[in-house]
Design a protein that fits this description.
This protein is α/β, with parallel strands linked by helices. The chain has one domain: 2-Layer Sandwich (Nucleotidyltransferase, domain 5), CATH 3.30.420. Helix content is 28%, strand content 18%. It contains six helices and five strands, in the order E-E-E-H-E-H-H-E-H-H-H. Strands 3-2-1-4-5 form a five-stranded mixed β-sheet, with helices on one face. A hairpin with a 2-residue loop joins strand 2 and strand 3. Helix 1 crosses helix 2. The chain is globular and about 45 Å long. The two termini are 18 Å apart.
Length: 193
């Protein structure tokens, strides 16, 4: 099994997914961030690591994770440009927390966010300068979710395709189908799509 890339070099685009888990380390209460970059239909970079600071809300944890993803996205954009393959548009970073996306597009501080470290407000500058943009994605379609927490089989079974890995019988178990089937119990065709 390997990554499968497709597309053309003449009009390259890239997008990213970012997601944290909030305060999940039982000893430090630090959150865990993950991001993945997709180009030509498959992953080209990813990260999954504990955040370097304690955050006080899921919005703040998401904002910190967005900062990590944005820095990677800007680096990928610059690297591709240096190689003579500039992206045709700013990199889009998908996240599933609307409050953190509002924070990235606003210069206002609130009582809940005035303590956020200045390094994470770099996200605002990237958005203002149109170096990247953030877009909402439902949690179940957020590919980075797999990088921050254990997922049940119903969600996990879709992840290989979302990362650009082809379906392979080795990845299939009958229990996965029974746990995720939306078909009626009378449908006993037994086929796997």
């Amino acid at each position: 099994m390997g990554l499968v890339y497709s597309g053309t070099v003449s009009n390259p685009t890239a997008h990213m997914y970012t997601d944290p888990s909030f305060a999940d380390c039982p000893h430090t209460r630090k959150s865990h961030s993950g991001y993945v970059t997709i180009m030509a239909g498959a992953a080209v970079s990813h990260s999954s690591k504990k955040q370097g600071l304690v955050t006080t809300s899921s919005t703040e944890a998401e904002y910190v994770g967005m900062g990590h993803a944005a820095k990677e996205g800007i680096w990928i954009t610059k690297m591709l440009s240096d190689l003579g393959v500039p992206l045709s548009e700013p990199i889009t970073i998908f996240a599933d927390n609307q409050s953190s996306m509002l924070l990235s597009d606003s210069e206002k501080l609130s009582n809940r966010t005035k303590h956020v470290d200045v390094q994470y407000h770099l996200v605002r500058e990237y958005v203002a300068n149109k170096k990247c943009r953030f877009s909402w994605v439902p949690t179940k379609l957020n590919t980075a979710d797999v990088l921050t927490k254990p997922l049940g089989p119903a969600i996990f079974k879709d992840m290989p395709a979302m990362l650009g890995l082809p379906w392979h019988p080795r990845n299939y178990t009958p229990s996965m189908e029974s746990e995720t089937s939306d078909e009626s119990p009378d449908d006993s065709s037994g086929s796997v799509e």
